[in-house]
Amino acid sequence: MRMPSSTFRPHAGRRRAPRSAAAVRGVGLIEVLVAVLVLAIGLLGVAAMQATALRNSQSSLERSQGVMHVYTILDAMRANPQAARAGGYNMGMTCAPPAVGTLIGSDQNAWISTLQQNLGPTACGQVACAGALCTITVRWDDSRGTAGVATQTFTATTRI
User: How far is Cα 148 from Cα 15, in angstroms, rounded to an integer?
Assistant: First the structure.
């Protein structure tokens, strides 16, 4: 059976009485504490993003410098093409700067020394020429990078 719409409802039009001042005391402080907590979490996120960007930027710089150093020794070899084609610049993967005594020794010494200045003391280089075809390899430690691999290698092959 359905009740008529004019049924008496004792609380239908009433509003609740406002709470006492003691019951709502501290609510504003809790709201402020929650806002500070949200702000702190956001600032920690910004700091983490900044640290990641800095690491990636350093890794990118080292990769660019690795490429630049490959072209540095190639330019030195192009300035002395007969010696490069004859294998005079050939050297295995080395981290120790070769002795200075000849033009080729000076070029190699300057190249490895500059590699280690810019890419760290573990930076190494290799030159392998077979006739006019030369392959240059640069290896360095990129443990600060985010690629997950500590050792990075860049290789370029060109004709002299």
Answer: 64
pLDDT (tens digit per residue) in 12-24: 566 665 666 666 6
Dist. CA 105–CA 101, nearest whole Å? 6
Name the 3-class secondary structure at 50.
helix
Give pTM, 2 decimals: 0.69
Instruction: Determine the pLDDT at residue 104.
Output: 93
Nearest to 62 by CA among 126, 141, 155: 141
The per-type count for the chain, helices as H runs and strands as E runs, is: 3, 4
First to last CA, the chain: 102
Residue 18 corresponds to which tokens in the numbers above?
Answer: 């406002």
Tell me the one-letter amino acid at 74: L
Three-state SS for 141? strand
CA distance 94 to 100: 15
Produce one character per residue of 8-31: b if its CB has 16 or more CB atoms within 10 Å, e if not: eeeeeeeeeeeeeeeeeeeeeeee
Strand partners, 137: 126, 155
The mean pLDDT value for 54-68 works out to 87
What is the token pair recorded at 122? 């573990």
